[in-house]
Design brief:
With about 290 residues, this protein is an alpha+beta fold. Helices cover about 35% and strands about 25% of the residues. The protein has 2 domains: about 150 residues, Ribosomal Protein S5, domain 2; about 130 residues, Alpha-Beta Plaits. The protein has 10 helices and 11 strands.
Length: about 290
Amino acid sequence: MPATSANLGPGFDVLGLALALHNEVTLEEAAGISVSIEGEGADHLDRGERNLVVRGVRSVYERLGRPFRGVRIACVNRIPTGRGLGSSAAAWLGGIVGANALLGGPLDRDTLLALAAGGEGHPDNAAAALLGGLTVACWSGRKVLALSLPVPAEIQWVVLIPEVQGSTAEARAVLPQTVSRADAVFNLQRLGLLLAALGAGRADLLTVAMEDRLHQPYRGGLFPWMERVAAAAGSAGSLGCALSGAGPSLLAAVGKGADNVARAMESALRESGIRGRAVVLGVDPVGTVWEAA
């Protein structure tokens, strides 16, 4: 399952981008629950009933009306947890897709996506992690409608990962219940421009297209260094920069000089008193893959 970056600025709860950084999950039927974790989150993730992979497995059994007696799970995690890079969506999908494979594949991809999005509460990360590429997703009743789009290969993606963790619940709690029509129109314009620019290969439009008024201005108080880092990325040559999901990671689109942008973002974060690392990641065009033993 790939890491994912949601929103890309204006696409709040709509857009997701699959990135070439992956978790691996191995499942076996067992009596009782056993979870082993290597890598990211090994020091704090739950290894019992509340583990998200376990919950994903259970959701499939419940959907099919099958008795759930237990599962043995081995996780190799490379996606940092609590950083706005879709680690929870990857965990849900690991359990859901893995359980479906264990049971012979009775659920289709649309149902798997709906289960994962239901566990997450929103479809953006789940759609990107399952389908790969740049995804546009929305709820339609209980179904999730999602489409994966190609991304211009000449655009590089720099992800700044602070050492501090963020809380999705807290990042959502600071958002207002209503927004002005002017702000809604502002985001609609930029969402349309972003999709059109990526489709037409007009990377020069991303600086404007990745602007946002629906969530980033309100989350700025949680991440007071965000504007400084984004400005440093722009000065170093990034085409656009946005909060990755609910944060605290930042995603920058770069045409050339990705390493320079990465170093500039790290430096600006360090000057704000926070340590972190910036990595250059490709786009995963495939999404989650699975195989039965």
